Amino acid sequence: MLNYLTLIFLCQLLGEIGVGLLGLPIPGPVLGMVLLFLFLMVRGRVPEPLGEVAGGLQGAMSLLFVPAGAGVILHVELLGAALAPLGAALVVSTLLTIAVTGLLMQWLGRNDETEASDD
To answer: SS3 for 44?
Structure first.
């Protein structure tokens, strides 16, 4: 299990290094996650110990929101001053996400129906 935890952290480190060297506008952990995904695609499956390690990390994920919550409390005046634009952005982005998800599910459902009728 330690090997797979090391693999996860190594992918994150490589992502951070890649973003730093290439000047990419994405967070290093996101690039690291893409690298891990590509590794798993080449391998063809997710090893069970890796799934267990990832599940353990997911179980502790709520702890990662504590610093963000403290930052929100620290800057509550600043957020209050920008409440209208932030609220509008949240509402618009949420509605857009729901619409795109619904349209994508309809499109994917049609493809499943055509494949089922071809059989």
So the answer is: coil
